[in-house]
Each structure stands twice: as C-alpha cells, then as structure tokens.
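User: Please predict the structure of the protein below. I'd like the answer in structure-token form so I can feed it into my own downstream comparison script.

Assistant: Understood. Taking the following sequence of 183 residues as input:
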Amino acid sequence: MEIADFAAASQNVSSIVHPLPHTAIALPCPPTPANLESNPMPIETTRRPSVAAPPPPIDYVRIGDAAGEYRLIRRGKHRAWAYVVVAFVSEICSVSTTVYDPLRHTKAAHNLDAAVLLSVAAGILLSVWVYHDRWRCIEAFASRFCFGTGRVSFLTAHLCMVYVPVIAFFYANYRGLRKLLGS
C-alpha cells in the first residue's frame, strides 16, 4: 500500500507549476500613512555654516584667562603645564640676565649682591607680568606641540622637553608684547 501511495504522490508532483526563477511575486503591501515621506533618510539636525562667521567686534573680543580665551584656543591631546613652568623659569633667568648686563657697567657693579638682587627681582616681576592672565592660553597653545604615547614615548617625551618650552617661551613673549601694545 505504501508503494501505491508513493506512486500516486509522484504523479501529483509533476502537475504542480512552479514560477520561473526570476519572476517577481506580488505580495500585498500595507497601506502607507499620509505623513510618511518617500525618503526615510534622517534629517540633518545640526546646521553647518557654509561661510565662516565674521569676527566679533573689537569691544567683545575675549582676551586672557579670566575671559576664557584658553577655551577657544585649539589644544593638543597632552597637557603642557610642566613645559610652561620650564618656560616661565627660563623667562625669569633671561630677563634677570638682561637686566644685570647694564647694571654691571654702573656703580651698582661695586655692590654685587645689590645688582644680583635687583636683577632677579626685576626678572621675577616682569615674568609674572608677562604670564599673568595668559598662563592657560600659553599652555593651550603649547599643548599642540606635545606628543608621545606609544612605543617610543620615552624618546618623544625627552624631545618634547627640549622644544615645547622654547615654543612656550616665544609664544609667551609674543603675548606679552601684545599685552604691552594693548591687544
């Protein structure tokens, strides 16, 4: 009996019509709501200005640490506080030396202690004036030149110790000159 059932079933299989391999089968689609747009791409939520904004008026320019200028300066990945400290100490030394040189040729040269004390005091005061309200700005600028994570971090850390304080020193003096000129 089983063989007869199998033979009957095989005759019925040949009568089934299959669609061709690349024939599209139309399935009923659900109705689309009226508020659904045809392009489901997300809408850009943030606007990107195509033209750069004009600079703010001179009255509203924020200069110095107290005004938050350091937040607007492009920074690097690494901090540069130690390098700015080295630049500050070298600023004190260079200003003290610059003040001491003319004092050597005056009557103050007879009293060596007074000449050194006066030059060091002038170096400290002038350096504090240069770095006052600009320390974070100098640190933010100098941080762009710091690098050193990875396999060669020991070497790069020592290279940074050489040139980043020099960059911070010259940038601080540039900012001090701008401070002197009133901008």
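That's the full token string. The helical segments are 2-13, 69-72, 81-103, 112-131, 135-142, 153-181.
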